[in-house]
Amino acid sequence: MTSADPNAALSPVLIALMKGVTYQENDPQLWQSLLGLQARVREYVGVLGLELILDEAEGYAYLRQRPASDDASALPRLVSRRPLAFPVSLLLALLRKKLAEFDASSGDTRLILGREEIVDLVRLFMPDTANEARLADRIDIHINRIVEIGFLRPLRGRNDQLEVRRILKAFVDAQWLGELERRLADYRAHVAGGVNRKDDTP
């Protein structure tokens, strides 16, 4: 009689993490496997130069590249960095601030925002325009980009309602949030500079 494959439970957990963020709510059974196997997961991904980031309270886990060292034998980067356009970075900052305010004032765990609400968050930091419809369309493109990278999720059957995924807290941390007002001032200056440069062109 052959023994069961010791990797039978580990493989699905690793595959899910390699594909992206693992959420407790999406697959509770897989999540429980991850919790039970996290020591083996950390050992396995450590060989690849990765580390497991697991937030049991918030219910998500993902793999992150270990910080680079000065060692000449450092491994090549496996998890690629994705540069974000300025409006997308701005929107992520505003959503993170909104999430912090929500957590401070509400006992709920899910922050749901309408697309119009999100558009209004960004509108204050965008150059003035007479074509509000075009501005809303542009912001909607940035919203869709954030949906693609996993920080917003449309509600089932309600594409105009989006949940702010709590993993945003891991990427925009408390220290960064503490500097948000300065960063938003930089954003305003960036927008104003863009408007001035446009106005100065012949």
Automatic annotation (TrEMBL):
It comes from the Bacteria. It holds the Pfam family DUF4194. InterPro entries: JetB (IPR025449). This is DUF4194 domain-containing protein.
